[in-house]
Amino acid sequence: MQLLEIFGIAVALSVDAMVVALCWGAVQPRIKVSHVLKFSVVFGAFQALMPALGWLAGGALYSLVNAWDHWVAFGLLFFVAVSMIREAFEKDEDDGQCECRSMGSDIAWGKLAMLAVATSLDALAVGFSFAMVSMPIAGPAAIIGIVCALLTALAMLAAGVLSEKAARHSKKLSLLGAAVLLLIGLRILFEHGVF
User: Fold this and answer.
1) How far is CA 141 from CA 109, 136, 146, in A?
2) Residue 100: CB partners within 8 Å, gap ≥ 6?
């Protein structure tokens, strides 16, 4: 897998974290540097950890499924992409209100960690799919974590300038992320001679 593809996966996986950060920041009277660091470090760390955990689980099962590993990898990426598409269409766009209004002006570490886990579960499946195609995980996990941390920080900084209406673009970002994952899944099938 090429670096550009890994970067595409990282961006796709970061969409949910960006939306949460943008949403939280949009309802704050003032965003501090400590807020930006807190969100970006926690979200980035979990986005790096989850693919590594998925890869470890996939490695343990690899000998059982190595004859059809490319289909497993495609299936997982397809599942993540479809769930992103479904979530994009389930978002309530009628009032444009952020769901993060109840988080308060300073979010607790525990609540932030729960949000980070919730927004990084897709990365678990991606890590599992990496194991299915015998791809090392250290580099991709680091890239995914760093990209997520940077995009989360940018989303929070943008929230200080933009209004709550910016959160409405989450649907387009989710659809773009899903398309990236589907294209990578199809490329895996192509490389294994399915097409």
Assistant:
1) 22, 9, 9
2) 20, 23, 24, 27
